[in-house]
Amino acid sequence: MKITFKINGESISKDIKPSLLLIDFIRDGLGLKGTKPGCLEGECGACTVIVDGLAINSCMYLAININGKEITTIEGLGTKENPLDKVQEKMVEHGAVQCGFCTPGMVMTTKAYSDKCIAEGIIPTQEEVKKSLEGNLCRCTGYAKIIEASEAVYKQER
Amino acid sequence: MERKLKHIGKSHTKFDAKERVSGKSVYGHDIDLPNMLHGSILRTAHPCAEIISIDTSKAEALDGVVCVITADDEIVDVNNISYKRDHPILKKGTVNCNRDEIAAVAAISKEIADKAIQLIDVKYKVKQGIYDPIEALKEDAPMINEFGQGEEKFGNKNIAESFHYEHGDLEEQKAKSKVIVKRTYKLPRVTHACMATSNITAEFNKLDGRLTLWSSTQVPFLYQRDIAHALKMDPSKIRVIQPTIGGGFGSKLDMHPFEPICVLLAKKSGKPVQIVFSREEEFILSPTRQPMTIELTTGCDAHGKFTFREVEIIKDNGAYTSWGATTPFVMMQSYSSLYQVAACKFDSHAVYTNNPFAGSFRGYGNPQATFSIESNIDLMAEELGMSQTEIRLINANYKGEVTGQGLHYKTCGAIPALKKVIETSDFENANSKTKGDRYKRGIGLASMLHVGGGAKIYRSDGCGTTLKLDHYGYLTIITGSNEIGQGSETVLAMIAMEELGLPEEKIRVINTDTDVKPWDVGVHASRTSFVAGNSLLGAIKLLKEKLSKKATELLDVVTDNWEYADGKMSFNEFEIKMDKVAREMHFGFPHELCTVNYFYEPPSKFQDKDFKGDVSGNYAFASQAIEVEVDTLTGKVEVLNTHVSQDVGRVLNPLGLQGQMEGGLATGIGYALTEEMIYENGVLKNPSFHGYKLLTTTDMPPVNFYPIETYDEAGPYGSKGAGEAPLIPTAAAIANAVSNAIGVRFYSLPITAEKVLRALHEKESMETIERR
Ligand code: FES
Ligand code: FES
Known about the structure:
heterodimer, A: alpha+beta, Ubiquitin-like (UB roll), DNA polymerase, domain 1, 5-stranded mixed beta sheet, 5 helices, 5 strands, 35% helix, B: alpha+beta, Aldehyde Oxidoreductase, domain 4, Aldehyde Oxidoreductase, domain 3, 20 helices, binds FE2/S2 (inorganic) cluster
């Protein structure tokens, strides 16, 4: 089946099997290995990507459903001038990374949520920030620094 | 002894953080070699059975399958693996636990390999199985592991490993005791749940017989030797490359069967093969913390001074014996030497069962030991009418103490750490906080002792470093040590920045390839910053000698007192760029490169046959005070706040250290409250994140961390190992807090809502009966 979509700013058409999972398409079909397979059961959030502004678990999403949509993966953040997005910068600064396997998912979830908050002019409370990341598991950090980093994104945008 | 430092002690972001946040780091899952095949392993359908027959013909016939192996394949010419060499890589005849590997497939895709596995037909004769170590110890129990040597060595065929330790005069101390408390504790089976599942990629070159492995091992040099032994190879023909590792926590200390199996598939197929576990496989297959039953008797005299500890431990070893069987090394330290203990007797037996085998896990037996010790301390205090703080303070370890086991505390932050958390948590007042009807609050206290300067359990506990200063003033640190997310690379870079005055962008750390890097024993025992840091400092000293010699010659000045800053060396009005010195060394006489090698071996000693001796370069001490709230309607325990104080010798990187604390606490809280692998007759019932509850963002309490700096001479800049400690006393402190909140004490973990509710109901009905 042929699908057309935009990924990280680039328009692409591809023939794919209807049963193909988005995570496999991204990692194996497009060679974008930054999106991580933590469980493939929709439980850990490591595979989070943004589809039309919404953070989704790419392991629970069929690739055909991106037809006509816009996708951002971890590789799509940042610009030529600023290779790191603000969310990524804050994660680095606040020490939110240890082994880093959960990190792309944490970054993408935060990115989608912060874009939405900023667009709506909302500054979320700490509780709301925690809630936004509840679906992302991390075994190394105890989350404190991830939450701090995420909050710092909003503080800066104020 | 405090020297003014520019980088050490200041927060530094992680050396590799930018790679990580941008998704550029290459983990095992991301490796894709040309012509690579994907492997899949068939595991037994029953935890205890005889294998009658294995028919692989349908799998072999499947399109896309390249090869299938079973124990009978001629390529499977292997040795048993594991700490006791009691573990066949591929099983034949019998299977002993739910992890047992029967066959493996390599195919052109993971999908096909998984499908082929389903097509393998195995006929079993199912056997009863023994899932309780007490049953396994009975006379009439069958022998579980045919390679076990329990009968000859320990007097029971199903004992895999035993330890006995004692010091002091137990009977005399018992006679002195005013209070004696005896309790039995039951610790659950929990798992590392690394976010990256286990993985391996193997490439075997038939032309020269060399093997390259991309492996997430924590101990590459021991691993190289283990793989060589398993596959009857020459270790030097094995190159171990560590891709980025997505979590270790001890799970990658042992080599597991899937690793040599992957090599066998690569050998047979003649192509590179990759095996990556699914999350379900990860839950079933990766090692666990030791489940155990601890019977602890402790005493104190009329003043609250501890008199003795007597402990009997039965550990569920599972079907095979991993490094985890040696956790008593650490446990006996806590029983003998956490607080002052006049006499101690320790016995532990790891008993074979048909359960999955346990392995090593951050803390290495210590969370279990500490849970029992600290619970008993609260019970003794209660019986004596003494406060929980006082009983701990009067017994706390002190500087200069040589314990009954021979641990020598050249520095000791035990009392400062205790005092700190007592003060910051306002322990005495928090303790008597008025308690509401439905929500009851409580606070608990616990301390811990752990090795801080490595642990000599292998013939060498050392680490090598090679340094290269190039023509352009860039430094390459080639270290034997490993990075598994804990931030050791960052600390090494900081040390080089500090000592050589080089900016971060001129420093590179190479640490992932056994063909390149010098020897190191591996990541465990909170040793990396300590051992690799000392090794790097030694190497830097040699490098400076070299630079100094050349610079004095070039500038015609005699001194050893060079200052290193901004890529330059200076002395009074003399100044020269380091890159120039390196070039002159090379291009001018004596025509040598600006490189050095250094190997550091810590001063620690092997323990003697009675397990006595000063086993670590130094020792870490910590205390935690934890506040909880128990919802008596639902039974849910919420951790409201944590106060953590730890003797880290000296803080090297505050940001990294705080991260270790928070991460450790999270695992400790999970151990206390939510995590448990539910096994029924050898089968795991909850192999997913849905059923096995890790903490999430909303469960995490604040972590108020207060480092104690004792400046221990043995460690780099006075530091001590810190990584494991933060999760060790957590469950103990939480259990004490819950008891404080609701007046019910739990002797087993995790303290789940159901357990709390049941206990509250029991308490209520007891009280009603008493009232009648
Ligand atoms: S990999 Fe998709 S949620 Fe875990
Ligand atoms: S940093 Fe390792 S899982 Fe989050």
